Amino acid sequence: MNFLQNFSGVSYRLANNWNEFLNINDYNKPINYLEIGAFYGGNLLSVAETFASNPESKLYVIDPWKDYDEYPEYKDQQPKIYETFLKNINTSEHKDKIIINRGYSNKKIPKFNDNFFDLIYIDGNHEPEYVLEDAVLSFSKLKINGILIFDDYGWGGPDLTQRGIDAFTHAYYKKIQVLGLKQSQLFVKKIK
């Protein structure tokens, strides 16, 4: 991926992990993409080069880049992470199609129109109640046949992210199709 040449910081799984469940040829048209939880921007930029490569695509990102009690390993690092994120975006060839929403997802998601996004990637706060809240708030913003991707299914054991994701998939089972799981990412299609 081209963006990796100038990328600073850490990136984990990237959008090339999605190829088993998403056909890249279905995304030649402009899309609206939402990413909740951006860290250094690695996944966001990988989506910009793959599924949102059309120049008219728009990539929206939500992250507060603030310390959480649940993540002591990043304490006092968020200002530097945000600064590095901005550098990564601004030095990429995709900066004009990325819209940054700095803040908490429960405040930012409701501001989007319903049925707006083609793809939504949830990788924010991993506590189950926050994962569930992000999924519920995002669902109405996702188009019919749109894809919701959850990161870190099973991360930290079954009582963290997985519990929140399972709560969502059980409650919304009549409105979704679970497409599958790959490298701890769960893929869900909105069918109603």
Description:
The protein is an alpha/beta fold and 192 residues long. The chain has one domain (2-190): Rossmann fold (3-Layer(aba) Sandwich). It has 5 helices and 7 strands, in the order βαβαβαβαβαββ. It has helices spanning 42-48, 78-90, 105-108, 128-139, 161-171, and strands at 32-36, 58-63, 98-102, 117-122, 142-150, 176-182, 185-190. Strands 3-2-1-4-5-7-6 form a 7-stranded mixed beta sheet, sandwiched between helices. Helix 4 (128-139) links the parallel strand 4 (117-122) and strand 5. The chain is globular and about 45 Å long. The mean pLDDT is 93.
Provide the low-confidence segments as ranges. Answer: none
- The tally of structural domains comes to 1
Overall number of strands:
7
CATH-assigned fold name = Rossmann fold
The level 1 CATH classification is Alpha Beta
Strand content: 15-25%
Structural class designation = alpha/beta
Global Rg:
15 Å
Sequence-ordered SSE layout with sheet pairings:
Blueprint: E1 32-36, H1 42-48, E2 58-63, H2 78-90, E3 98-102, H3 105-108, E4 117-122, H4 128-139, E5 142-150, H5 161-171, E6 176-182, E7 185-190
Parallel strand pairs: 1-2, 1-4, 2-3, 4-5
Antiparallel strand pairs: 5-7, 6-7
Helix pairs in contact: 4-5
What's the gist of this structure?
This protein has 192 residues and is α/β, with parallel strands linked by helices. The chain has 5 helices and 7 strands. The chain has a 7-stranded mixed β-sheet with strand order 3-2-1-4-5-7-6, sandwiched between helices.
